Give the backbone structure.
Amino acid sequence: PVAQTFFADDDVSKAFRIDGIVTVVDCKWIVKRISEKKKGTNEAVEQVAFADVILLNKTDLVDEKEVEGVKKQIRQLNKGAKMIETKYSKVDLNEVMGIKGFSLDRILETGKEFVDFDKETQHDASVSSVGFHIEGELDMRKFNAFMGKLLQEKGEDLYRSKGVVAIHGARLKFAFQAVHMLFGGEMTQPWKTGEERKSTFVFIGKNLSVPELYDGVEECLVADAGQAKVEEQFMFGSGDGFKA
């Protein structure tokens, strides 16, 4: 709710910019906390899933094997977050400030870190993060409809979404990200000569159906390379602001 305030309130978004989300976890107890089955929301899971940077605190109370176990569990929830081992939460401020966790330019920079997955993976009811690439250009209107439907129907379960999209007929890359149902994006860097036109996506949330996500994007691919090209505009809006 706090993060969404920066995007949903026009006055707040004009005056302030959210730099990123930093989560501190207790290495001694975090695995137990995120494994707890609760009737409602497991806040420990959500805080890990939303994070851009995660401080692995109290590493002095566990051995190296336990730390690696913590990292493995966290990676299942959030593959993209940067993890920093700490004691007494001491950390270089440069590591947690100016991280540009919600910057569209950063999405372009970190695209190579997105994780591929086997699209045959079965539906997972737990919180997880999935990422994939898909070759070819997407039809803007079809992709627009896909994202609109996805956020409307699944937005509550989608903690964060982001990607770089190859829109048919556009000379610029389209970068986007969303927090639940709030979406924002803009045309950014131009495609380089000879660069492969492919789109990259990351979704973090619960009740994710990996094949459904992949197939939904795949259905947006342009089948006829000769079809009419689109203007470089996107009805979801542009800039750093997020639109519902």
